Amino acid sequence: MEKKSDKKMLALFNSKEAKQIKEEICEIGRRLWAREYVDANGGNISCRLAPGLFICTPTLVSKGFMTPDMLCLVDDKGNQLLGKIKRSSEITTHLAILNAVPEAKAVVHAHPVHATAFAVAGFEPPTCLIPEMEVFVGTVPIAPYRTPGSPQMADVVAPLAPKHQSIMLGNHGLICWGKSVEDAYFKVEITDAYCRTLVVAMSIPTAFTSISGDEVKKLLEMRKNLGMPDHRFNWSASQIAAEDPWEAMGFGESSCGCGCGCSCGSGEKSSKKKGGGKKSKK
Ligand SMILES: [Zn+2]
Description:
It is built from 11 helices and 8 strands.
């Protein structure tokens, strides 16, 4: 497996900085597995080591039980330079992000159930509901389905990465980038917790509330000050809140039909019930 290796490359791969990155990747792998964000050999992690050089996880290994000696060194095209196990086939998707976004230091890909459920439904999570999501993650697009690890997968993810730190992969999972391996992992945690909260909230029979456009603007200002990207920075409050997130999820009065002016015939006064829901454009 080891090719093109010279003493300099080997020294870099065994340097103090590389050692820290390898340990952090193994630790984040344990967290991914412990939180059931990855199953079997699923998920992968990568981190920038030097210009054009990246450390990444190997293929066909549980991310919960890796040791630093199992990790790989690849170049910016995904060619494996060092490491005793073959590198992940999905490294090309990571590199699409790392090559497109210079400030991205690390990428984490996983299959957390709640975020993946939105990706399977083809439904982009609506905004204006929880501050944590607005400040630390922003909006989450869904890249159309492509064969995992294929050049086509890289092609659909690359243009989304400069504006989005958390990207759903249609019918597949979630991929996030950050300023460190842990930072990228935090985006995975926040995105999945958000999706999970929405799924649970949808089961509670009540009228739902959302955060106003003016308040979300304040959260986006915090996001901007933290140096994170978001295409809504120049939007007005009314643009940000143009869509009722609950309406988008099919909880609008127009779709309930329960005695409030529509025609389901139940005769019950329940202001918002589940209806159609809006699908993302694929
Ligand atoms: Zn995957």
